[in-house]
Amino acid sequence: MVVLGRCDLAGAAKGQGRMRVVLFQDRFAEKVRAGRKLQTVRRTPKRQVRVGDVLCRRRWTGFAYGSKQETLGTAVCERVRKVRIDPVNGWLEVDGVAQNLFERNRFAKADGFRDFAAMVGWLRETHGDGVFEGVCWEWMTVVPPTA
């Protein structure tokens, strides 16, 4: 079922934080909706998401900017971390701490990938071979979309 409705603004109204729209590629949409993707890694934006901000998670129903957005649900940002990923050498640093293989795979699974190797493959396709520096926004509190 495609929900073209709004995000639940109740969280923002209760002082939880600002409402932030976060768009996802089609390949991640069902994982976001089903709660199997609990974080997203992004380049550091000009306006940073903060803990407590309400994330309105969406995807385009067709071409970007030329179609409507489907709402995947609302979540509250529970943690923001700095990340560095070297896709060529296969390392991950979170908040300045290098992650071991177990931690890298756990991180990738929380982001909707099979494992860290799959995440690195996607990262290389999307962003190239250079070291990726950005942020990771994590959520657990999920509210389904409203019509």
Furnish the topology, listing elements before pairings.
Elements: H1 10-13, E1 19-23, H2 26-34, E2 39-43, E3 54-60, E4 69-86, E5 91-94, E6 97-98, H3 101-110, H4 116-127, E7 132-143
Parallel strand pairs: 1-3
Antiparallel strand pairs: 2-7, 3-4, 4-5, 4-7, 5-6
Describe the structure.
The protein is of the alpha+beta class and 147 residues long. It is 24% helix and 36% strand. The protein is built from four helices and seven strands; from the N terminus they run αβαβββββααβ. Strands 1, 2, 3, 4, 5, 6 and 7 form a seven-stranded mixed β-sheet that branches. Helix 3 crosses helix 4 (116-127). The mean pLDDT is 87.
Structural class: alpha+beta
Report Rg: 15 Å
Q: Please describe the biggest sheet, giving its number of strands, its sense, and whether it closes into a barrel.
A: 7 strands, mixed
Strands, total number = 7
N-end to C-end Cα span: 11 Å
Low-confidence stretches: none
Summarize the structure.
This protein is an alpha+beta fold and 147 residues long.
Structural features:
147 residues, 7 strands, 4 helices, alpha+beta
